[in-house]
Sequence to fold (192 residues):
Amino acid sequence: MNPEEESLIGAAELFKALSATSRLLILSALAHEPSSVSALTETTKLSQPLVSQHLRLLRGINLVTASRSGRETIYSLTDHHVAHVIQDAITHSQER
Amino acid sequence: MNPEEESLIGAAELFKALSATSRLLILSALAHEPSSVSALTETTKLSQPLVSQHLRLLRGINLVTASRSGRETIYSLTDHHVAHVIQDAITHSQER
DNA sequence: CTGATATATAGGTACATGCTTATATCTTTA
DNA sequence: TAAAGATATAAGCATGTACCTATATATCAG
Fold:
């Protein structure tokens, strides 16, 4: 497989992770501030298991990072590059 | 629904369109140069019906534009913003 | 009109995905 | 150690999606 196609596969994986509104809600919240699962459950109005499920996926591709603090688990964006990609997409879809 | 959530829904739709490697192949080809369906079929090695199907979806959300020329239909990117979003995602997934 | 070329659509299948409810695991406090 | 709180996992369902093969539509040449 040529390197360009490899790149596109990687990009597609990222896009797939970003293709669910629920996950964008979570990522947006984390772009604002690192949060516990329960905090995310409240701000996003998603069910707790669903939040956990999405976080697991996002952690799987290294978009978010977890760290324990007492009995809470605090999640944060691994880096803010992804926030820019999201912002760009928002800009695009608003210009449309 | 608050405006931020609306924005995220729009972004999610865009990301969903970009989440298939096949469509990224097509968009990459079109970023390089406008092409007919048969040209895209050759460069992407996808089947002709599949290319048409993806093009219909991409046209549906205004990422590509069609124009007839003889018996060919030439597709091109509606604007190049989307090419930047893709390039950004590639950069991200390579840095990971 | 007829055949050839270019593209689009239809129908079907296999698999992935987002969500829900129920339950398990882990951590702290009483 | 027992109970409560915080998070993770499991099982099931309903829907969506990418693809294939077959066929329809449209455009041009003879």
User: Anything to note?
Assistant: The interface with chain A takes residues 4-5, 7-16, 18-21, 24-25, 28, 61-62, 81-82, 84-86, 88-96 of chain B (CB under 8 Å). Residues 20, 22, 46-47, 49-50, 53-54, 68, 70-72 of chain B lie near DNA strand D (CB under 10 Å from a C1'). Strands of chain B lie at 35-36, 64-69, 72-77. Helices of chain B lie at 3-17, 21-32, 37-44, 48-60, 81-95.
